[in-house]
């Protein structure tokens, strides 16, 4: 029998073992298949769950902008997380049990070396119970599926700089936040309304503060996470009581805002300064150098102009006078009669002897000294302006007479009038060019200290019609502290102070504009060669203007080189001991130096690489006679200058910004002539910040 044709013979016991093994293998096979099927189902559930928690974490980060404190913000964010989760993970999805679904947000301020970094991490953990089918055979009816989604949000550290100068007009609703605004709302009220609404866009995890500026700057609310609170600890409690008055001192407010951001100390946060203003700055600040050398500049000269001139005490005080009139002769420059007044009787014996010898009894003649009490009282009874016009002054009844001017062949004819006139009259167009005081006297040649500190408020003479005229007008008024709480110093005795005669003091007392302002910003820069009251442009009829203004035409300014007929052709001294320095006797220089220092302050803040500060600016155009489109756009670091409505409807862009710095953040610049638009412009800035913070 062949072996190849024989089959193995199995016993019945062997055949039973095969069935048993097959059954056991089938048990594990079913479990494996069930695990694969149920695991695949769980994988599908987890994929949808991950998408839902990712969405929920983003929604929670956005929801943090609601609520007036951190607890309320967390509650609002949790609600937002649940809403986003439910929108992306439908109830009962793939058989999950809704009653077992949980969503747990967690908010963590990221720290480094125990210090907050300015980054907020939002983690949302979602958990669901997914059903099983095959695994149910093994008494596993459900399996828990979990996922965590994370989002980060940069904390915003922002300081609002608000212009509260007088051009904004005083509040109509002082003590409360306006409930609504219109085109006729005063600018100050519209600004407060817009600033208050602006706060609603941000989170209680953010730090927001406010700085105001008029003649002086101040921190009215240090950056805090409590800014949304409705009680006295919130920013609205401060905003409702802000009023508007005074000058416009922009640069110190920028320095204060920068300091406040550094005080918070969150280097990885989104650090932001938003600057709102309705016009050009008109205060120059610094340690002012005293004028101790003669030079040629606009009058009036000290001791020869103003309401209370002091008599000169030395040759440094004397005017140079070309005309041949003898200051002690009978025909002097008396403002009324043009003669030296006559001495009245009764006369002393010595005086009578001179009269008997044929000498006319007049003041100014030392042969009639000493004067009688009546004659001395008559002299003192003349007004200061009349006495200032005599060619001499008398310190007491015994004399001696002292000269007010000396003859100098190099002096221009009429130098006396040039040196005693304030050059304010608009009807003499060349007055600001030709009527200059030649070799103006000085009050002192040596002083200690040789500077005084403060901000000089540019004044406005209503009769002149223009604040920054390049030919004539007031130069300056009182001295203000750059920052509220700081002290100012005054010139030493002998120099005119910055008081009610500040327009005279700025001319007579100050040598020139200092290189740096009171806070280390440069007073020299992009506006050194700029003239303001030129290049008029007009908005279309019907354009709303703030504060009831109706003048649709504004001066846009330009370079002196293009407007040489407008005046001196420069903002600087061109000769003399102060050559190449900005001058303080020209009204046009006040906004030029003030803009230079504001731009310098902003550039210093933007160059702070630790905090990478961004500037956004809002310009309410039309409250003054002048419009400067470039100033705030340079501060915002835009790449291309945009036009204003005074450049014409549909005007093209105005060229590349030559001061754009690619190493600084590029901000936003908005303008309007309508106070009712402010809240909308602030909202656009808020939208940009919210996109950047997520």
Question: In words, what does this structure look like?
Answer:
There is one protein chain. The protein is an alpha/beta fold and 694 residues long. The protein has 14 helices and 22 strands. Among the domains are: 22-154, no CATH class; 157-279 and 613-693, 3-Layer(aba) Sandwich (Rossmann fold), CATH 3.40.50.410. Helices cover 27% and strands 18% of the residues. A hairpin with an 8-residue loop joins strand 11 (392-393) and strand 12 (402-403). The chain is elongated. The relative contact order is 0.11.
Throw out a few tags for this protein:
694 residues; single chain; 3-stranded antiparallel sheet; 6-stranded mixed sheet; Rossmann fold; 14 helices; 22 strands; alpha/beta
Write the layout of secondary structure elements.
Layout: H1 12-63, H2 70-88, E1 102-112, E2 115-131, E3 142-154, E4 156-163, H3 187-199, E5 207-213, E6 217-224, H4 236-239, H5 250-264, E7 270-277, E8 283-289, E9 295-298, E10 319-321, H6 349-356, H7 373-381, H8 384-389, E11 392-393, E12 402-403, E13 405-407, H9 415-420, H10 431-434, E14 436-440, E15 451-457, E16 479-480, H11 502-508, E17 530-531, E18 536-538, E19 553-555, E20 558-559, H12 589-606, E21 614-620, H13 629-636, E22 669-672, H14 678-693
Parallel strand pairs: 4-5, 4-7, 7-21, 10-13, 21-22
Antiparallel strand pairs: 1-2, 2-3, 5-6, 8-15, 9-14, 11-12, 15-16, 17-20, 18-19
Helix pairs in contact: 1-2, 3-14, 5-12, 12-13
């Amino acid at each position: 029998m062949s072996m190849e044709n024989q089959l193995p013979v199995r016993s019945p016991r062997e055949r039973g073992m095969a069935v048993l093994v097959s059954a056991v293998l089938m048990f594990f096979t079913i479990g494996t298949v069930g695990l694969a099927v149920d695991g695949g189902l769980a994988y599908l559930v987890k994929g949808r769950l991950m998408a839902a928690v990712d969405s929920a974490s983003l929604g929670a980060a956005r929801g943090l902008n609601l609520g007036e404190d951190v607890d309320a913000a967390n509650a609002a964010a949790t609600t937002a997380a649940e809403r986003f989760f439910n929108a992306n993970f439908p109830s009962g999805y793939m058989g999950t049990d809704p009653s077992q679904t949980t969503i747990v947000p967690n908010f963590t301020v990221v720290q480094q070396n125990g210090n907050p970094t300015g980054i907020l991490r939002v983690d949302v953990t979602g958990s669901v119970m997914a059903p099983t089918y095959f695994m149910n055979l093994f008494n596993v009816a459900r399996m828990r599926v979990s996922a965590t989604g994370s989002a980060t949000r940069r904390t915003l550290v922002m300081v609002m700089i608000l212009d509260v100068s007088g051009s904004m007009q005083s509040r109509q609703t002082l003590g409360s936040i306006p409930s609504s605004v219109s085109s006729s709302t005063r600018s100050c009220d519209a600004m407060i309304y817009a600033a208050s609404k602006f706060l609603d866009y941000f989170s209680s995890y953010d730090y927001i503060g406010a700085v105001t500026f008029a003649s002086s700057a101040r921190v009215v609310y240090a950056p805090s996470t409590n800014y949304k609170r409705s009680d006295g600890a919130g920013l609205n409690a401060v905003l409702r009581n802000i009023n508007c008055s005074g000058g416009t001192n922009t640069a110190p407010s920028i320095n204060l805002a920068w300091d406040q951001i550094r005080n918070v100390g969150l280097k990885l946060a989104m650090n932001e300064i938003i600057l709102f203003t309705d016009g050009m700055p008109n205060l120059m600040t610094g340690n002012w150098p005293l004028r101790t050398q003669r030079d040629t500049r606009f009058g009036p000269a000290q001791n020869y102009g103003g309401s209370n001139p002091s008599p000169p005490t030395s040759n440094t005080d004397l005017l140079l006078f070309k005309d041949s009139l003898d200051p002690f002769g009978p025909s002097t420059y008396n403002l009324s009669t043009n003669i030296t007044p006559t001495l009245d009787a009764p006369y002393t014996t010595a005086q009578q002897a001179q009269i008997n010898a044929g000498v006319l009894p007049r003041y100014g003649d030392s042969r009639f000294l000493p004067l009688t009490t009546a004659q001395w009282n008559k002299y003192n009874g003349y007004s200061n302006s009349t006495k200032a016009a005599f060619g001499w002054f008398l310190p007491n009844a015994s004399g001696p007479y002292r000269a007010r001017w000396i003859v100098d062949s190099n002096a221009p004819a009429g130098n006396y009038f040039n040196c005693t006139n304030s050059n304010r009259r608009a009807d003499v167009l060349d007055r600001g060019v030709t009527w200059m005081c030649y070799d103006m006297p000085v009050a002192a040649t040596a002083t200690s200290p040789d500077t005084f500190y403060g901000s000089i408020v540019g004044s406005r003479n209503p009769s002149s019609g223009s604040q920054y005229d390049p030919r004539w007008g007031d130069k300056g008024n009182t001295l203000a502290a750059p920052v509220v709480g700081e002290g100012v110093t005054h010139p030493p005795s002998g120099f005119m102070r910055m008081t009610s005669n500040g327009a005279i003091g700025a001319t007579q007392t100050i040598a020139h504009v200092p290189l740096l302002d009171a806070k280390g910003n440069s007073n020299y820069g992009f506006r050194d060669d700029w003239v303001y009251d030129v290049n008029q442009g007009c908005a279309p009829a019907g354009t709303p203007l703030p504060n009831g203004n109706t003048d649709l035409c504004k001066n846009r300014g330009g370079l002196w080189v293009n407007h040489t007929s407008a005046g001196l052709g420069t903002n600087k001294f061109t000769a003399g001991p102060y050559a190449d320095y900005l001058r303080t006797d020209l009204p046009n220089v006040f906004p030029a130096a003030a803009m230079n220092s504001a731009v310098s302050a902003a550039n210093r803040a933007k160059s702070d690489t630790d905090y990478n500060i961004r500037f956004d600016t809002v310009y309410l155009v039309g409250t003054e006679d002048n419009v400067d489109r470039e100033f705030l756009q340079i501060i915002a670091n835009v790449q291309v200058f945009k036009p204003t409505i005074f450049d014409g409807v549909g005007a093209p862009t105005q060229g590349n910004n030559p001061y754009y710095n690619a190493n600084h953040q590029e901000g936003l610049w908005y303008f309007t002539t309508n106070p009712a638009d402010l809240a909308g412009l602030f909202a656009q800035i808020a939208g940009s910040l919210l996109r950047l913070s997520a």
